Amino acid sequence: MNKLDPLEIKKDFPIFNQKINGNSLVYLDNGATTQKPIDVINAISDYNITSHGNPHRGAHELSIRATELYDLSKAKVKKLINAKHIEEIIFTKNATESLNLIAYSYGMEFIKENDEIVLAISEHHSNILPWQRVAKEKGAVLKYMYLDEEGRISLEEIKSKITNKTKIVAVAQMSNTLGTIHPIEEIIDYSHKVGAVVIVDGAQSTPHMPVDVQNLDADFFVFSGHKMLGPMGIGVLYGKIELLESMSPFLLGGDMIEYVYEQDATFAPLPFKFESGTKNVEGAVGLGSAIDYLQKIGLDNIKSHEKKLMEYTLDKMLPLSYINIQGPKDLNMRGGIISFTMDDIHPHDIASILDSYGIAIRAGHHCCQPLMKYLNVPATSRISFYLYNTKEDIDRFIEGIENVRKWFGYGS
């Protein structure tokens, strides 16, 4: 394993060449979206300059080039997550659309009255709201796995909530708020024993660690391009081929049909039946370039770098008596995310003051209001790391936290 050098990596990202409020940028909001390396920016630009056309629809050179680039990116995704078939890779707008597609095309069709759908209380709203709608419309029962004091799902909780009535289990591999890496293998294994299908939200895990959907035995797996150095507007849905073949299309229109009659239609085979309309080719090209970049660095290296950065950060934060950190303290059970509160200071104030020093963090409920209620906090501040973050970034952040206290008259 080669050592990752974040200072060298940062040179690949033009956005760090600017000043924010007169300061060099410290970007610690990677859980929301990541920055783009010049390779990705150039790949998107080159596509638009040399190869822009409507894929799968034309016999001319530009359409052919666009088709080849689109399909090449799909092959890169297949390799990244070790899918078995290229037909199992569906491009969407983002992880949210992927989850909605599963809810409508699988949930609405196969969930029956009194069936159970099980989620983790820590889920992002995009992995709660679609299942709320399915449960309401189908008369199903929506249940939650709750967290222990360290923000983890225990084996006892898994076994008590997933029953013979459970038909769907939907859970994030890594919490976008707490950074908790949930025991996905155990959840999938136990769910399959009772005949349930498992949907894994990999939006926070895929950019930061190796993912193997065959090894996990995930039935569905989703993630977004913009959280892994790619552009916004491109996401991925992986589904086992037999499940995807059993599902009806989510959106109807051009390029997903086989033949249209006046009163009926037949649909194209996988993956096309789930990709209606004109494709986001530049998004796919950008995602493909981002995957190339990440694989050149090595996802194992990224995971190791973030773990060291997490250890360094916690060593700085835990001694601060006015800081309250949510989630596991065990570094083996969390990814590069830290949510925290500060005594007597609202998270929005913390984020606004830090921004004045050029430090970008997140504040709010992080699209996890049920989790906030469960934790009994209205909101938290959140920092999230990536491959270009350094110990110097953390030092700036800690200094900024101390300045926040001074702004409110608490001294050093």
Itemize the secondary structure elements and their pairings.
Layout: H1 6-10, E1 19-20, E2 23-24, E3 26-27, H2 38-50, H3 61-81, E4 89-92, H4 95-110, E5 116-120, H5 129-138, E6 141-145, H6 155-161, E7 166-172, H7 184-193, E8 197-201, H8 213-216, E9 220-224, E10 235-239, H9 241-246, E11 257-260, E12 265-267, H10 281-297, H11 299-317, E13 323-326, E14 337-342, H12 347-356, E15 359-360, E16 362-364, H13 369-375, E17 380-384, H14 391-407
Helix pairs in contact: 2-10, 3-10, 4-5, 11-14, 12-14
Can you put this structure into words, describing what you see?
This protein has 412 residues and is of the alpha/beta class. Helix content is 39%, strand content 17%. It has a 7-stranded mixed beta sheet with strand order 4-10-9-8-7-5-6, with helices on both faces. The chain is globular.
